[in-house]
Every structure is written in C-alpha cells, then in structure tokens.
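Input sequence (179 aa), recorded before submission:
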Amino acid sequence: MIDKNQWLVVGLITSCHGINGQVKVKSLSDFEERFLKTGKRWLQKENESPSEIKLISGFKQPGKETFIIKFQGINTRNQAEQLKTYKILVKTNKLPKLKKEEFHLLELINLDVKTLENDELKIIGKVINLENEKNNLLVIELFKNQKKVLIPFVTEIVPLVDIKNNFLIIDPPKGLLEL
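Predicted structure, token format:
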C-alpha cells in the first residue's frame, strides 16, 4: 500500500505509441507540465512499489486529455508494451504552487462536509478519500450511519471549498446520499 501523503497518481499508461518506446498516457492531473517537462517521475505497477524513471519528452495529443511521452531507457515498442496499465506518480512534496483559489485534491481529505438545510449549515460527514482513476470523486463518510458515499467533485455538487476553515459544502441531488 503506498502512502497517500507521499505519492500522487497523475496519469495512467494506456498503450504504446509508435515503435521507439513512446507510451500514450491518460492524464489524471490538471497540470500538463507533468507530461511535458523532463525530469523524475515514478512508475507503479498494480500493488508494487513505485520505481523512479526519467521523462525525456512529451507532447499533448491535440483535442484530447492524452499525452505521448518517452521515458529514458524505454526504446522499443516491446519495452513500452510492458508499461501498459502502469500508473505515473509524482511525490506530493513536488506539488506545484497554487493560486489563491486553487488547491490540491489531497487537501480535501479530512475536511468536514456540510450541507445547507433550511438556510443552516449542518455537518453531515467527513472526506476520507479520493477516487480519481476516471473522474474526481470524493469518498465521504456520513456521521449518521458510517456509510461511505461517492460524491462527484464538480462545482454543481460541491459549490464551496474552504481549506482555511477545514470544510466544504455539498449540494447533492436528491437521493445521492442514500445510495
């Protein structure tokens, strides 16, 4: 099990590209430089420890959330094929500095979850994890029944995040918390 506070999954290798060892990556990050800027990255095969690798080039496929990247030492299609389904990680101490209104998804963990009921804010649970393989989902543990619910992290459902005061507000569609 990797320490959630140490690693951040930023991409998923989906296939190889061409014959010179390039791979196609699905981005799970808002920061394109993770796939464009050369430097250290870590690859992780399911349930294994991450291993360091150097990114030597990358470009974004026009109109897609995918990048074609090349790692040092991966020079053939066969070698690239071996990397399919690997996750690309970065160390969380290397997170980019953010503007005032931005935050890292990791900062959402442990925030109190509040809803607005009859104009009153009511704490209903806590963010305990993030699922962001496909899309960003907050895993929220509800206080009333210890049930875990997945909430899509989109502005319509999570209109306010207040990192400073340690809470976020959700406005879930009817029935979402009962799932």
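Checked by second reader. The longest helix spans residues 77-81.
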